[in-house]
Amino acid sequence: MIFKRRDPKPTLRAMAEFLWPRGGWTRAFHYVKHRMKRLPDSPERIARGIWAGVFTAFTPFYGLHFLIAALLAKLMKGNVLAALMGTFFGNPLTYVPIGVMALQTGHFVLGSHLPEGDHRSFGGKFADAGGDLWWNLRAMFTNADMDWSGIVVFVQQIFYPYLIGGILPGIFFATLSYYLMVPLLRAYQKRRKGMIKAKFEALKQKTALKADAKRKVD
After folding, report:
1. Mean pLDDT of the chain
2. Are 132 and 138 spatial neighbours (Cβ–Cβ below 8 Å)?
3. Which pTM value belongs to this model?
């Protein structure tokens, strides 16, 4: 197939590079930033796409961030590719602070808190909910009793507070990204147009000199 790797990447290596890309997250960040600048669209549309991507990174819908960001970008008439790139605001280096911020804000807004003495981790509650889904799926075809306790705890203590609490910081950082990117993108596109125009004029002048030299020889 076209673009298919000749040497398939081992699973463990792929997982390792997801957590820490080859060259580090700094290089990955600069690559995404470079790609955003070169998108063939207006600064405002690209920035609206980035807004959608950054905001989506503050939602608890892991695994669906690309889809949600694309839908938001469509609704906002933003650049969809920029939205997909904007979701990289959420990455293994930022998931923890984003999660803590969203959970703390959500419990504050809802007037709730995590039960004292509950030492089950954030990831552990995710695992419990996933385990319940798998168990209940099997229970549909066996005599086992369904158990929704892990999912109930996850929704009450993690998912719902995260969903509510991610709205305000999500809007803040997404809007900050928008107003930072519009002038940067506009300046970059203006400079790039100037460089392309200068190269065209130089090529035009070079062609004219060659034609003039040829006429003199003839």
Report:
1. 77
2. no
3. 0.69
